[in-house]
């Protein structure tokens, strides 16, 4: 497989630097370090279910998601991770797609593999990667769909997209919002566009389940839209049985665990404050504000590649070299917010390597 | 989701006939009723692994499969079930594909969704669905690839494909063989073409893992080829992280469980003999010979739809109405070979409904 340039490549990095993969602390992928209580029991229930095929229509899974987010089950398209839905969506929309960069590279890859015309627009780096609405309006006739990630990977600052949605609706375009990291946001209800899904067929929202719930290896995500034309096209292309029985079964429990959800939100509020304040005390870096579970940093005097190797060698810490994001360069790194103890370790090593 | 016409649709059928899905005995999908020992422990290990992303290159998984089937890891393409590989393959081969019917409908669906030209050729129903080599030769200039399932779904009789492979190699075409049900065959080594993968780049083999190992909800399959052009094209299209951590972890154990593998083979030899001899005693049906874990039956005096409803109503038994396979009609049904007790129950109900 070609290197797609993502984080979480612990094993090859460990091999390259003669480390045991088990010793590496992975700050390169953005996963909640906490999981719900009772998980083992639910997984063993999933094991029983896995002895037959999952329901090809995933009726129960869609009902569980429906109750969680208050969107009708027929507007919910479950996937083998959000990735499956991204790729299906690209088969199901009109030819010209604009993508707001820097952002997750799979949007562009999936668009190009499905022969879409990609227009790369830029977020305003000098203003916390704000969306430039005038720029969108100027380019409105050049695209059919606009893809935005909110909070955006790699910078993590949540944006209010209501004005953007108005522009898209007024011009009868499609707004695609990847809200994979929205559940980490303090005022989620204010920023999430899920509440507009049933109202506007011009909206398609992507959600990952297993990042916030700390289980990315289980693979579960979904798409939300009331656009029947897109739903029909997606199901025309969708492969059968893509979601495994563990993800299917777990949906009976994870979305109802209010305590886990609230505790995780609280945890990230505290830990973001801690990390941002500690990192901002380092003079030789610029720390971007974040509302989610990762932080983008621009180095003043070092290259991303260098500090990545230094942190791995000296601290067994793997960070994300963010230089391959469109619009960023070799000064950018991205780090996850992990357990408090691990975060402290990272801060200690960063201060040692970069000075206070 | 549109009805794709597969078996295993227990829940909608149960709802339609006011049954509890848990009470239905599913003879419509072809799954080994046995599983390996120690499964719970391995699954809980998989749960730990699922807290981070699976290795994007699935190096360990490919090595485990490599040891099991003695094919080099770089020729192994793991998938979220064999289904993922079927769909990727259809993006990666030349325009014209011939399919030998009746067979699994996803081959044609995946080919058409990827804009391939499909040529449907027929197996010889009057001769145990034998492959007509003269017919292949006559049509050889009409296709680039030939797709065959061996043992074929829905009839289950294994074929020796060596002469067919010779024809394909001589004409520099591609032979695609779905060996999903090959592990159930008594003389697997004799019939499987895996031994030719490294020799002939004209060969692509599909394998499902979780049917023989009784865990279809875990989702694991793979493709095998030494055709570097196809491998490169598949990885060009392949989505990242499609295989979940449970499947990845389980690969450390299932392929090494010789006792399970041998016991399952023995079990199916005995149970096939039992089922075939009992079914052949029913005068009003024609029973096709099988080498795998399902049996195709042609009814003389009844329609498939009728007996399907009768078995469900009276015996809580769900069978596969096989009338939607290309080349079959409304007289055909397919039944799985399940546990001995369940098989006895099916036989009893069939005899009651169809006479001795």
UniProtKB/TrEMBL annotation, chains A, B:
SUPFAM superfamilies: PLP-dependent transferases. Coiled coil: none annotated. Its cofactor is pyridoxal 5'-phosphate. Keywords: Pyridoxal phosphate. One of its GO terms (molecular function) is catalytic activity. The keyword Lipoprotein does not apply. The keyword Isomerase does not apply. CDD domains: AAT_like. Residues 23-348 form the Aminotransferase class I/classII large domain. It comes from the Bacteria. PANTHER family: HISTIDINOL-PHOSPHATE AMINOTRANSFERASE-RELATED, THREONINE-PHOSPHATE DECARBOXYLASE. This is Threonine-phosphate decarboxylase. The lineage of its organism: Bacteria, Bacillati, Bacillota, Clostridia, Peptostreptococcales.
């Amino acid at each position: 497989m070609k290197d797609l340039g993502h984080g979480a490549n612990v094993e090859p990095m460990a091999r390259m630097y003669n480390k045991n993969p088990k010793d590496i602390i992975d700050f390169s992928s953005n996963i909640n370090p906490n999981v719900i209580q009772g998980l083992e029991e639910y997984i063993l229930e999933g094991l029983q279910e896995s002895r037959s095929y999952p329901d090809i229509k995933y009726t129960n899974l869609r009902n569980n998601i429906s109750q969680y987010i208050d969107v009708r089950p027929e507007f919910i398209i479950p996937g083998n991770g959000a990735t499956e839905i991204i790729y299906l969506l690209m088969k199901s929309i009109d030819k010209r797609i604009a993508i707001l960069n820097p952002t997750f590279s799979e949007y562009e890859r999936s668009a190009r593999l499905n022969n879409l015309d990609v227009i790369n627009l830029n977020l305003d780096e000098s203003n916390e990667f704000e969306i430039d609405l005038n720029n969108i309006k100027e380019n409105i006739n050049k695209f059919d769909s606009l893809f935005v990630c909110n909070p955006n990977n790699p910078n993590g600052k949540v944006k209010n997209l209501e004005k953007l949605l108005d522009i898209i609706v007024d011009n009868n375009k499609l707004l695609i919002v990847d809200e994979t990291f929205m559940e980490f946001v303090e005022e989620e209800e204010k920023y999430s566009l899920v509440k507009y899904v049933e109202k506007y067929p011009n909206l398609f929202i992507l959600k990952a389940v297993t990042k916030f719930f700390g289980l990315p290896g289980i693979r579960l995500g979904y798409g939300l839209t009331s656009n029947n034309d897109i739903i029909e096209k997606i199901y025309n292309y969708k492969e059968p049985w893509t979601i495994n029985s563990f993800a299917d079964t777990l949906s009976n429990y994870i979305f109802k665990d209010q305590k886990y959800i609230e505790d995780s939100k609280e945890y990230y509020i505290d830990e973001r404050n801690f990390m941002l304040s500690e990192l901002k005390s380092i003079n030789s870096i610029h720390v971007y504000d974040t509302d989610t579970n990762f932080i983008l940093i621009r180095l003043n005097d070092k290259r991303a590649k260098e500090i990545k190797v230094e942190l791995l060698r000296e601290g067994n810490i793997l960070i994300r070299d963010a230089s391959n994001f469109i619009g960023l360069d070799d000064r950018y790194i991205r780090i996850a917010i992990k357990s408090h103890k691990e975060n402290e370790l990272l801060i200690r090593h960063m201060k040692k390597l970069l000075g206070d």
